[in-house]
Amino acid sequence: MNNNNLVAHCGLYCGACGVYLATLSGGEALEQLASRFGLSPEEMRCQGCRSDVLFAHCRKCNFRDCTREKGIENCEDCAEWPCEKLKNFQSQMPHRAELFESSEFRKENGLGEWFAKMEKDYSCSACGAINAAYYVKCKQCGNMPGNDFIGRNIEWIENFTKNR
User: Fold this and answer.
1) Is residue 123 helix, strand or coil?
2) Which residues are CB-neighbours of 86 under 8 A, at least 6 positions away?
3) Phi, psi at 64, each rounded to 5°
4) pTM above 0.85, yes or no
5) Looking at residue 27, what is its pLDDT?
6) 100, 90 contact by CB (below 8 A)
């Protein structure tokens, strides 16, 4: 599904974000996530980086502000790409592991092919459900790993989640 709201300014794919997925499913999933963050379900809701409905954390995005100030679509369009802020951001959490490769792919192949690649990377090989980067087991069918991205980055994801 080509939805430009799901193209984060930094290069991430919002369609595989746990907050976005909880917003789509609503109800209990959104309430549980909101409780974990100490927010209301309404504050938790997000429909993607370029939408008008943003998760509280995403409303404070430096990359969103920076790209807008520079009049560019995404960080990879910047002459300074990848800047130190983006490198630091990428290195902090496992769901950002392939940020630079993803951005390069989009730059070289265009949005249509990028969306197809993201959907493949984040879909369960058994049932096709989109799973967030931290869903080690598919939320729909229990398949492991929950998607190809997790399979490639399982060690970092497991270490990260153990230490939280």
Assistant:
1) strand
2) 10, 63, 75, 99
3) -60, -45
4) yes
5) 86
6) yes
Of 112, 109, 88, the residue nearest 99 (C-alpha): 88
Residue 47 main-chain phi, psi, to 5 deg: -115, 20
> What are the pLDDT digits (tens) for 23-40?
999 889 999 999 999 999
Cα Rg, the chain, nearest whole Å? 15
Please say whether the beta carbons of 23 and 44 come within 8 A.
yes
Beta bridge partners of 123: 130
For 156, phi then psi, to 5°, come to -65, -40
Those residues whose C-beta lies under 8 Å from the C-beta of residue 96, and which sit 6 or more positions away, are 12, 89, 90
Residue 93's nearest CA partner among 6, 29, 164, 14 is: 164
Q: For 44-91, how does the pLDDT look when each residue is reduced to its tens digit (9 = 90+)?
A: 999 999 999 999 889 999 999 999 999 999 999 999 999 999 999 999
Whole-angstrom distance, CA of residue 63 vs CA of residue 77: 12
pLDDT above 80 (res 164): no
The SS3 assignment for 7 reads strand
The partner residues of 82 in beta bridges, in order of sequence, read none
Nearest-CA neighbor of 105 among 6, 1, 13? Answer: 13
